[in-house]
Amino acid sequence: MTRPITAGVDGSQESLAGLAWAAREAVRRGLALRVVQAWRYEPQEGVDAGDRDTQARWVRDAVTGAARTVTGLHPGLEVSTEAPEGDTVGTLADAAAGSEMLVLGSRGHGPVVGFLLGSVGQQVIAEAARPVVLVRAGDEPAAEAAGREIVVGQHGGPEDSAAALRFAFETAAARGATVRAVRAWTLPPVFAYSPGSLRLLDEAGGLEPYEKKALAEALRPWRERFPDVPVVEHVEIGSAGQVLLSVAGRAQLMVVGRRARRTAVGARIGSVAHGVLHHARCPVAVIPPK
């Protein structure tokens, strides 16, 4: 079954930027586009907000209007619209489950503030079973020009970042772009060394060669599957978030894995994803674990 790309809209200019990005990606991948807006009936005393049927019609008209902004630019693109009544987070998470990816607009209030991470955005990212792409307002097609890379973070063993690497290579193949695979490493405390780890480090020739070997092993199956995609292997000492952001200027898209967990104060998506979403100026794809 072929999944569509879903764009969540809410009538804002930010969501229209996300919709435009989703439409271009759908055309590149040969997929359909689904435009979704969640809403709740909200009667307001003293204000003519209409009854439930009236509000439903307003939302449907708004979603149809949003869809028209991309159908004119992409005449061959298959576009459908939905305006379900319900909780925003639940609706978008459900929509993501049946999609290749969910695309949302980024509502920043400055150059270093990302998409509603304290509210809807973080909850959707944490709960979605499929990739979620955040697109900043003002994103332009020119940013996807040749020479800009798909930057992806890799950590741990080959399976730990398999989903993120798959997404990065698929996107690069659709765009004719280069993948820059980034692996950050830090000096571990002495007590963290075990006899087994010391032996592996000795065989690799030291810490940095060990990290380079680990990255090469993680990339091997994706290089074989996508032989035409150029790859840059980037290994650097430092925190993962800082190293990724140091190369963000080269990126047309940043791809990071998600480490969602529940706490007493709500959902958390992991420090690396959180930091990149707050500071990267390019679109960011957050990929759930397998």
What's this model, at a glance?
This protein is 39% helix and 20% strand.
Topology:
Blueprint: E1 5-8, H1 13-29, E2 33-36, H2 52-71, E3 79-82, H3 88-97, E4 101-106, H4 120-127, E5 132-136, E6 149-153, H5 162-175, E7 179-185, H6 195-204, H7 207-225, E8 231-237, H8 240-246, E9 251-257, E10 261-263, E11 266-268, H9 271-279, E12 284-287
Parallel strand pairs: 1-2, 1-4, 2-3, 4-5, 6-7, 6-9, 7-8, 9-12
Antiparallel strand pairs: 5-12, 10-11
Describe what you observe in this structure:
By secondary structure, the protein is an alpha/beta fold. The chain has helices at residues 13-29, 52-71, 88-97, 120-127, 162-175, 195-204, 207-225, 240-246, 271-279, and strands at residues 5-8, 33-36, 79-82, 101-106, 132-136, 149-153, 179-185, 231-237, 251-257, 261-263, 266-268, 284-287. The protein contains nine helices and twelve strands. It has two domains: 1-139, Rossmann fold (3-Layer(aba) Sandwich); 146-290, Rossmann fold. Strand 6 (149-153), helix 5 (162-175) and strand 7 (179-185) form a beta-alpha-beta unit. The radius of gyration is 21 Å and the shape is elongated. Helices cover 39% and strands 20% of the residues. It has a ten-stranded mixed β-sheet, sandwiched between helices. A two-stranded antiparallel ribbon has the order 10-11. InterPro entries: Rossmann-like_a/b/a_fold (IPR014729), Universal_stress_UspA (IPR006015), UspA (IPR006016). Residues 1-136, 150-288 form the UspA domain. Belongs to the universal stress protein A family. Pfam families: Usp. This is Universal stress protein.
